[in-house]
Amino acid sequence: MTAFVLSPQGARRVDERLERAGLLDLAMEEAGRGVADVLHAHYPGGRVLLLAGGGANGGDAFVAARHLQVLGRDVDVLALPSTHPLTRLNRRRWRSVGGETGLLSPRSLRRALAGAGVVVDGLLGTGFTPPVRPALAQWLAQVQRWREQRADRRVVAIDLPSGLDAASSEVTDEVVQADHTVTFMGWKPALLFGAAAARAGQVTLLPLRVVPEWVQEHAQATRPSDPEVAALLPVRRADAHKGSAGRVWIVGGHPGTTGAAAMAGVGALRAGAGLVTIHSLAEVPLVTPELMVRRHPDWPATLLELGRSPLPGALAVGMGLGPEAAAVARAALSWNVPTVLDADALQPELAGAGHDRCIWTPHPGEAARLLGVDTREVARDPLMAARALQSRLGGVVVLKGGPSVVAHPAGLSVSRGGHPGMASAGMGDTLSGVLAALLGQGLDTPGAAIAGVRLHARAGERAGARHGYGLIASDVAGELGGAWADLLADREAGIQACRSAGVMLASGHAGPPE
Ligand SMILES: NC(=O)C1=CN([C@@H]2O[C@H](COP(=O)(O)OP(=O)(O)OC[C@H]3O[C@@H](n4cnc5c(N)ncnc54)[C@H](O)[C@@H]3O)[C@@H](O)[C@H]2O)[C@@H](O)CC1
């Protein structure tokens, strides 16, 4: 199923609606019980110490304590005073089943930690506003030291590790390092990006059965599952031929950087394009004989002329294109065919020159240049950066990263998967080829971006399993066919899931070009 990304503001809105409907108690019960079940399944041994803060995050901890006791676990609870009605109610319920609650203090914490095997961090959730107050910072540091002292000690965070700003990828020293985070309703942005995501450890998302449509309504982004992505991919008829599988041009390559164009070409071929031609300024290495190469020593003049010949189904522009990139990209955009813009073609002066069928593919550094901001600002909130870029550039934006964000006119989508070995040269060039290939096979712009990013990441996972951190872009290209087959195996399940949930990922596949 599609998972959703919920900003802290979105979570608050759902919270308010649940409260108005009298359903918050039910949601907290489900959340706390889910924490207990996940904890018990993953960490079956050791005494459990639950730390309950004053807000609803602490209320979840009291519910979890009750259910852990039912599961036969030895449980201690230390809590801060609370004025939150449901947290107080669940504290009373805990007491009514014989549970005791100590007041959280440096001394009580030291004593309880000495006997604990697992700590449940229910101190701060989405209601936290940075910075952490000094008293709390001191307790969080105590928990950190306890965890670091022995390898078998575990921290399970409720909703998100305490001290983490749910909206940001950045961390401060106070943020608890969790082994596992059980989050509710939707992914908080901090659980997806950068150093913040690394503090969460393994993440289990509990969607909660209480009114999922409110979560969808207030979501900041979607996170489609593999079957749903697979539903976007085209399926060929038995009589398919190279003309019906899409004709792609790769416009890139300058003396010294022709490899970039070659990798994009291979990416396009391996993502199913029927015919791929590289138009380059310099001689492109013959990486595979299936690629056609046309050299334009006097471009951009001959390239402009190219616009008068039969145009391809899609093109990718910019990979290793060099100083002429903006002029060439402008000419290519005037042809008005589905176009991927990458690398040297990602020039601020092209804002406003694009059209609806463009996919712009910046990495955070390029995104920062396009937006006129610091790279750190982009990295802190990739969702906001992708949204801002899409408003500025139009079409669809793929903000590359682990994970990548796709911003399209109807919303934001965050990709799944990938492999850390993909942090290597040429990976983006390969992706550009993949995206152009999918556009050439008739996918609409958002559909090509969402499916292409996942296909590329899946190929990266396959290549990573073989080559680890030593994987190179060509390995990923080599796994694209296998990745496609993996995704297609789930296609029917995805179509059914989209229909029954009424979820539109993107309008998807318009059918192969005739
Ligand atoms: N959104 C929903 O509908 C649901 C939310 N649930 C839980 O509710 C949580 C949010 O609850 P709340 O909004 O009550 O907020 P939290 O419980 O996350 O935090 C509020 C508490 O943190 C303290 N606090 C805030 N900033 C601080 C700082 N800088 N230093 C020290 N203390 C600080 C406040 O004084 C207050 O006691 C979620 O994270 C989740 O765990 C669950 O019960 C399931 C349903």
UniProtKB/TrEMBL annotation:
Coiled coil: none annotated. CDD domains: YXKO-related (cd01171). It comes from the Bacteria. (6S)-NADPHX binds at residues 56-60, 125-131, 159, 260, 320, 363, 429. One of its GO terms (biological process) is nicotinamide nucleotide metabolic process. Bifunctional enzyme that catalyzes the epimerization of the S- and R-forms of NAD(P)HX and the dehydration of the S-form of NAD(P)HX at the expense of ADP, which is converted to AMP. This allows the repair of both epimers of NAD(P)HX, a damaged form of NAD(P)H that is a result of enzymatic or heat-dependent hydration. Catalyzes the epimerization of the S- and R-forms of NAD(P)HX, a damaged form of NAD(P)H that is a result of enzymatic or heat-dependent hydration. This is a prerequisite for the S-specific NAD(P)H-hydrate dehydratase to allow the repair of both epimers of NAD(P)HX. This is Bifunctional NAD(P)H-hydrate repair enzyme. It comes from Deinococcus koreensis. The gene is nnrE.
